[in-house]
Amino acid sequence: MENSNGNPNAPVQLIIKDLHASVEGKEILRGVNLTITQGETHALMGPNGSGKSTLANVIMGHPKYEVTQGEILFKGINILELSADKRARLGIFLAFQYPSSVPGVSVGNFLRRAVEAKREGYDPNAPAAPSGEMPKRKGMPPAEFRKLLNQKMQLLKVDNTFISRYINEGFSGGEKKRAEILQMAMLQPEMAILDETDSGLDVDALRIVSEGVNAVRGPNLGVLIITHYQRILDYITPDVVHVMYKGRIVKSGGREFALEVDKQGYELLIQALEEDEAATV
After folding, report:
1. Residue 165 backbone class (left: φ over 0; alpha: ψ -120 to 50; beta: rest)
2. Does domain 13-101+190-280 sit in CATH 3.30.390.50?
3. Which residues 6+ apart lie within 8 Å of 68 measured at CB?
4. Cα-trace Rg, the chain
5. Which tens digits make up the pLDDT trace of 190-215?
6. What's the pTM value of the predicted model, to 2 decimals?
7. Which of 31, 32, 69 is nearest to 226 (CA)?
8. Distance of CA 194 to the CA centre of its chain
9. In angstroms, rounded to a whole number, what is the distance separating the alpha carbons of residues 256 and 265?
């Protein structure tokens, strides 16, 4: 499949243009512009209520959010017209801030079905909305799945007992986030969004989860890390750091910019930006 520039060999890009989105009639995103290229790691910071998690949910297609303007291009396709499952099949992955528990479904069974669906790929001729019926897919050979799973579990240092447990049932905060990273490693997306993966983690759990993210990073994966604090960036070094405020990205910089934001705080940064904006009017 071609990239947005028409070159099938070029790195894949996620391109967000003038994105506006609302929830329950309230506008949250007010013109977001952002481009992430496969192989890059971007960090999105900002105070609570600035729209960071809303952006993650809109990219992945959460039906609660209404896009009123703009577009999101991935592999040259405007994914706003696609359901969440089709966006995943295209190669986009979202790690949730608060992963849900699924009693009765083991991690191993879930991963196998998810990998099978991802390998089927994106069908542009499939119905716009999910049919609700179980597809007649060719199963993944158990030996092949087990080999892939063992490779990823060793890479991420995940215990073998993990896969027999029900998804997130009785998991600690750190275990839930490690399960998300294991899903990402198995599905091998080209673009991953980590929505406040550091939320609720102590220092040891944060280090372990960060090591897992670093283990799967590489030239074939673009990453958007959404975070309120810069502490996760002590473990995962971003190429670009953005600050979001009132539904827009108001400033971007390199790794050192995150340290600057952490030192002076959002309030002083926003105040300086507003003063500069007022001076130019």
Report:
1. beta
2. no
3. 20, 21, 22, 27
4. 19
5. 999 999 988 888 888 899 899 999 99
6. 0.89
7. 32
8. 4
9. 14
